[in-house]
Amino acid sequence: MKAVGLYQYLPVNSPNCFIDLELAKPTPMGNQLLVKVKAISVNPVDTKVRKPKAKTEDPARIIGWDAAGEVVATGADARLFSTGDRVYYAGSITQSGSNAEYQLVDERIVGRKPSNLSFEQAAALPLTTITAWEALFERMHVPEIPTVQSQNASLLIIAGAGGVGSIATQIAKKIAHLGTVVCTASRPESSAWCTEMGADFSINHKEPLLPQLQAKGLNGVDYILCCAPTEQYFEQMVDVINPQGTICSIVESNQGLDMNRLQGKSATFAWEFMFTRAMYSTDDIEQQHALLNKVSTAIEAGTLISTMSQCLGPLNARNLTEAHRLIEEGQTIGKIVLSECV
What we know:
Blueprint: E1 2-9, E2 19-22, E3 32-42, H1 44-50, E4 53-61, E5 67-74, E6 86-89, E7 102-106, E8 110-112, H2 119-123, H3 126-139, E9 154-158, H4 163-175, E10 180-184, H5 188-197, E11 201-203, H6 209-215, E12 221-226, H7 230-240, E13 241-249, E14 268-271, H8 276-280, H9 287-300, E15 308-314, H10 317-329, E16 335-339
Parallel strand pairs: 9-10, 9-12, 10-11, 12-13, 13-14, 15-16
Antiparallel strand pairs: 1-2, 1-4, 3-5, 3-7, 3-16, 5-6, 6-8
Helix pairs in contact: 3-4, 3-9
């Protein structure tokens, strides 16, 4: 099978950053599915895993954690899907990735592809959608069934034009029906994207956040979802969060965070890492299958939309390198997608 992998962890300006490969097609076992990958998308986690380091791989490593495709074979214990089913998923960070013609994936973290989306549009969604859904409903305990209190609540999404922010905005407004959803964005085009995704308004994360919120009539917010470097915004989040509010971050901190700063407000801080269930094979791992199916239903109903912003063409070393370059520049909006290997 065709695949795009790496032997060394190199910068994107290296001609060998990624290599086009021919590998043996794997065979599914247990509850695994063998999926013919029709499209993939690229996330910041891909660039973090690939970042230059003094390490080599032999055989080549295949990364990538977002895909949509068709089931072509199943393991003996598979019960959720059959050959011919169209699926989408983010996979596991501990397993061989989606940058290949075929991929093995645990069916318990796979959802049925929304029938009204192309494979490319569907591939844009799994990792960021699982992250946003778990952050909102499981880490911050936003009610999935709206209540009077939640419909009056406010959410601030820091870096709202990115992949997670784009779908989190939609989920917060269209599923949770939160009263006010505010995104941060620093450019006119990213601010416009946030509005398109459903944000009530946006503020500039390059300027102090609280005065901008106050200018819009908010003296604080009930929830904060941080999709940017946590240490960069921690002090501001402490100032902005309402008493008894909840902060969730999806980006690890490069320095210690003073949690004592949250004590006076009895505020909660939580981490979200969507790979946790797959990494540890948790008892509730199949929740990700159910989650993705719920999202498919919402997309088919027109409640949610794909966050794909651009497709760079077929999956190959050149196009994948370009996708990594664009993400590392930090100016992307929505999700970058690649079609199947050709």
